[in-house]
Design goal:
Elements (H helix, E strand, L loop, with lengths): L1 H17 L6 H16 L3 H22 L9 H40 L2 H7 L4 H39 L4 H9 L4 H27 L5 H31 L1
Length: 247
């Protein structure tokens, strides 16, 4: 328990340093653009691929499991839309990104720590915590909501693909279900949750990487711990935010 409280204290202390006023805004902006490319743009492919197949699988599963003469066929499209908007394209997609991006951040900062690159930045008078971590947090909080949009569209395309290529139901019926009783607030809920999830992924992974103490074995352990704790915190935040936003 004391170890957990100590870790929370170190995390809060690190975030206090991260959000200190930048020394040179131009330098931070260049780092921010670099992180946008490395963490966000490079994740678009996997987001589109996973969302495309999941959208098709969800449609097929719902069609097979709720098929009934008492249930209108367009219900398949309606339920598929709700799953994509409310949970998959925000929470589940961020869990997947926590594995990809979180391990990347933790291993990068951990390697810099054990090779004393962070110490060199401190000797030069640079706030290494802010310079290395703040652009990552900003980049993820910018790109994750964009990736959520891509995920929603790819999931819908996957749902239509199951109609066009597998022929499980007419595409016009699916389209009616996707449009039926559309609630715009559900899209905004996904965006709002994604901001919190992005901060969790970036800050927690950065904490584990930045505070590595040891050699390469500890870097691997920190990367694993970052992914596990980020995933747990995302699930907890999803529970709380869903209650607040939908309650």
């Amino acid at each position: 328990m004391l170890k957990a409280l100590a870790s929370v204290g170190r995390y809060v202390s690190l975030m206090w340093r991260v959000f200190a006023r930048p020394e040179r805004y131009g330098m931070y902006f260049k780092q921010y653009l670099k992180e946008l490319q490395q963490l966000g743009v490079n994740s678009i492919g996997i987001v589109l691929l996973i969302s495309l197949f999941i959208g098709a699988v969800i449609t097929i599963q719902i069609k097979l499991n709720i098929e009934s003469p008492w249930m209108p066929k367009w219900t398949v499209g309606y339920v598929t839309r709700e799953i994509l908007l409310l949970e998959f394209s925000s929470a589940i997609m961020c869990l997947i990104l926590a594995g990809k991006i979180g391990s990347n951040i933790a291993s990068e900062l951990g390697t810099m720590r054990v090779t004393q690159q962070i110490d060199a930045l401190e000797i030069m008078g640079i706030n290494s915590a802010s310079y290395l971590i703040l652009p990552k947090i900003g980049a993820l909080m910018t790109m994750i909501p964009v990736l959520v949009i891509f995920s929603i569209f790819a999931g819908i395309i996957g749902a239509f693909a199951s109609c066009w290529f597998i022929g499980i139901m007419p595409a016009t019926v699916l389209e009616y279900g996707l449009q039926y009783m559309f609630v715009e607030w559900y899209v905004w809920c996904g965006f709002i949750k994604s901001f919190f999830f992005a901060f969790i992924i970036a800050s927690v992974s950065s904490y584990f990487g930045y505070t590595v103490d040891g050699g390469s074995i500890e870097v691997g352990k920190a990367s694993t711990d970052a992914v596990v704790l980020s995933s747990v915190l995302i699930l907890f935040a999803d529970l709380v935010l869903t209650q607040l936003l939908m309650g």
